[in-house]
Amino acid sequence: MEQIKILLVDDEKEFVETLAERIKLRNHKAEVALDGEEALKLLDDDIPDVVVLDLKMPGIDGMEVLRRIRKAYPKVQVIMLTGHGSEKHEIEAKELGAFEYLQKPIDIESLLKKVKLAYRNKFEKSMVAATFAEAGEFDTAKDILKEKDKKASKRKNRV
Amino acid sequence: MTIDKNKLEFVGKLTASVSHEIKNVFASIKELSGLMEDLIEFSDESSFSHKDKIISANEKINKQVQRGNEIVKNFNSFAHMFNDNKTDVNLNNLLDVIVNISKRFASNKNIQLELKSTSEDFKFETEPLTLMQIVFHSMNLFIEKLNANEKITITLDKIEENYRICIHSSYILDNSEEEFIANTNGNIHVTDPNISIKYLDNNRVEIDLNKN
Fold first, then answer.
1. Contacts of A83 in chain B (CB under 8 A)
2. Count of alpha carbons within 13 Å of A14, Cβ hemisphere only?
3. Which CATH number is correct for A5-118, 3.40.50.2300, 3.40.800.20, 3.40.50.2000, 2.40.110.10?
4. Sorting pLDDT into bands at 50, 70 and 90, what band is A146?
5. Tens of pLDDT along B106-115?
6. How far is residue B144's CA from residue B140's CA, in Å, rounded to a whole number?
7. Which of B56, B79, B102 is the last residue of a domain?
């Protein structure tokens, strides 16, 4: 089984640390950040495959963290996991490129299922783009990455 | 009675915020209980002398979390409807929320509330709080008068371009239509001219939502 590198960002300390422990028990890597700033610092040091991100946090809120991650690390997949869910927030998050928008509390197996899908999405996208890049078609590779992002966002907005 | 719009929005905002915080508490309890479950599952079986009892207690914690979360979810949706402004209301969601919240009042008298929901999303522009008040008031009329083991059915139908919410009781009341309308007007300030209420055959309230 592939080991996925997951960054969990949430200011609910007990929740996020317990979730990380449970993820580690399932043989994935899990790092914890208790706010947006800490998350962005951790991303600078070690890029995860998937970020599970809360929406409402002190300091930089989840939506802004999502915006910055998508800009600086477009390959990193972001799953929003929040207790502050509204349709408006969900649409905004998906427009910004969130892979999924989930509500707390969530069953760990359901969360990991989404994490694996996000990871696969990242992997597939990179593989197709890499094929074109290897053939020297860098513009096509770039277009594929952009197009896949757009399609994923549209598909999720329809759901 | 009319409530200041700003105060209503203020109460709604605070209520929504509190319900979000409660959701976070449930999420933490769920994870901690899940961790206990994991530790039992991933550990050496012989190291737990009361394994079955711990598993059973943990399952009960999970059930209560699920129950609490459903209540908070309804409460949160309810809080988001705390405004007097006209907005595009998802009628299925509105009925789901108000019927679920009212179930407690009905079950105290052993009365069953049944919402026959539709799979299609019906949307109507109105003041959500007023519409919820009308539905609640109509259900409550029956809840107060019915005997135990009676049933109230709530349906939502599309009639051409308009919608109809029907609250139907299994028991015939002795209220007249005049009494019902007078009571409704005394309790709810219906400002939307596109909503009309009828009390029929002493066992049915029809709330018509007309698009024009």
1. 20-21, 23-24, 27
2. 12
3. 3.40.50.2300
4. low
5. 998 899 999 9
6. 6
7. B79
